[in-house]
Design goal:
This is Sensor-like histidine kinase SenX3. The protein is an alpha+beta fold. About 50% of the residues lie in helices and about 10% in strands. It starts with a strand and ends in a 7-residue tail after the last strand.
């Protein structure tokens, strides 16, 4: 079944009248891009304590147990104390002098070796205080051969710090990207409405259509962010029902054809009749709308987007391949495109833009159904493969 969208006149977003404000020019009072870049870069005041980054030398840290290390310290101090006392007494030292001197030496030896036990704990305390102040770059630096409980605790602490630093950077990236995504349509709306209020442009159907487009963009972004919050909270319920999969895809493609008017993409659906599947139609529509819309966005005008459906009966899966022809995604970048706010590169004649959330939400919707979304090798172009189980398995 092949459809091609009929071309329509393109929409104007600015007026041709003299003095009209360009809608893509941002008012000066908005946050400048360099501030967003500073947020993305995670610029913050460093609270790193002095000495946290100094590497600790632990003379007996290579032993596998803290108990063994304590026994070794006590045994070594005791043996040295007895040996020194015997030598001093043998050479005629007074016992009242030899015994205190021996005790001081034994305590000094114990203190020297126990530093390796206490110093990492001090480092972890200082690092925890620095992290509480917002500095997630601090680490506990131990020798790589520290294999006792303290060494393992230090490595676990550093892994936790890495995760916290990564999560904090993701939060900063999200704030910066959301600010940018919201600013663009809001600024365009503000410029267009101000031009109309000042009498610079007329409220013509074309200008009102441009305003409507920006409100749709805002609405889509808000919907994406709501889905993102559900992803974070894991608070997504499914309304599972059985339905005809070909009819479902047919209904999903129609609005995309209408939205694609003017770009003349052909959306070709190839699916056998009678394929039925269990799932939440709203979530699956969200999945395939994002995947197919992404394929359209990264296809040159006048090209075809192919949607192929087949069953893997031996696995109980329904596989859908969405292919846009001509371009390729490097193997190293295939896992990154499903991360939030990551936008794919566009080639000549393709659209940029988008929120960078569509593919991450598509993968989330597939995972809710026990399925997968991935990019597979295909000589024809970029091939997104969606695998969904025919029958929904409820979580226990």
């Amino acid at each position: 079944m092949k459809r091609s969208a009929s071309p329509q006149p393109s929409k104007n977003t600015t007026s041709g009248r003299p003095g009209a404000r360009p809608t893509d020019k941002l008012p000066k009072r908005h946050t400048p891009d360099r501030q967003l870049a500073a947020v993305r870069g995670g610029n913050r005041t460093s609270h790193t304590r002095k000495g946290i980054q100094d590497r600790i030398v632990r003379p007996i840290g290579m032993l596998s147990s803290l108990k063994v290390e304590l026994c070794v310290i006590i045994a070594a101090a005791t043996a040295i104390a007895f040996g020194m006392a015997w030598l001093l007494l043998k050479f005629g030292w007074n016992g009242w002098i030899a015994m205190p001197l021996t005790l001081v030496v034994a305590l000094g030896i114990t203190y020297f070796f126990s530093r390796g036990l206490i110093a990492p704990l001090r480092q972890m305390r200082d690092a925890a205080n620095a992290m509480a102040d917002g500095d997630y770059t601090v680490r506990v630096n131990l020798a790589t051969d520290s294999s006792d409980e303290i060494g393992r605790l230090a490595r676990a602490f550093n892994e936790m710090a890495e995760e916290l630093q990564h999560a904090d950077q993701m939060r900063l990236d999200m704030i910066a990207n959301v600010s940018h995504e919201l600013r663009t349509p809001v600024s365009a709306l503000q410029a267009m409405v101000e031009n109309m209020a000042d009498g610079v442009t007329e409220p013509s159907p074309a200008n009102l259509e441009s305003i409507l487009d920006q409100t749709h963009r805002l609405s889509d972004l808000i919907a994406f962010l709501l889905d993102l919050s559900r992803m974070e909270a894991g608070a997504a319920s499914l309304n599972v029902e059985e339905f005809d999969f070909r009819e479902f895809l047919d209904e999903t493609i129609k609005p995309l054809e209408i939205a694609d008017a003017g770009h003349a993409h052909d959306i070709l659906l190839q699916a056998d009749e009678g394929i039925r599947i269990e799932g939440d139609q709203d979530r699956l529509r969200q999945l395939f709308t994002n995947i197919i819309a992404n394929a359209i966005k990264h296809s040159a005008d006048g090209t075809t987007v192919l949607v192929e459906v087949h069953e893997r009966t031996n696995q109980g899966m329904v596989v859908t391949n969405v292919v846009n022809f001509g371009s390729q995604i490097p193997l190293a970048e295939r896992s990154d495109i499903f991360r939030r706010f990551v936008r794919g590169r566009t080639g000549p004649g393709t659209e940029s833009g988008g929120t960078g959330l569509g593919l991450s939400i598509a993968r989330w919707a597939a995972q809710l159904h026990g399925g997968t979304v991935r990019v597979v090798d295909d000589p024809r172009g970029v091939d997104f493969e969606v695998c969904l189980p025919k029958y929904h398995i409820a979580e226990s």
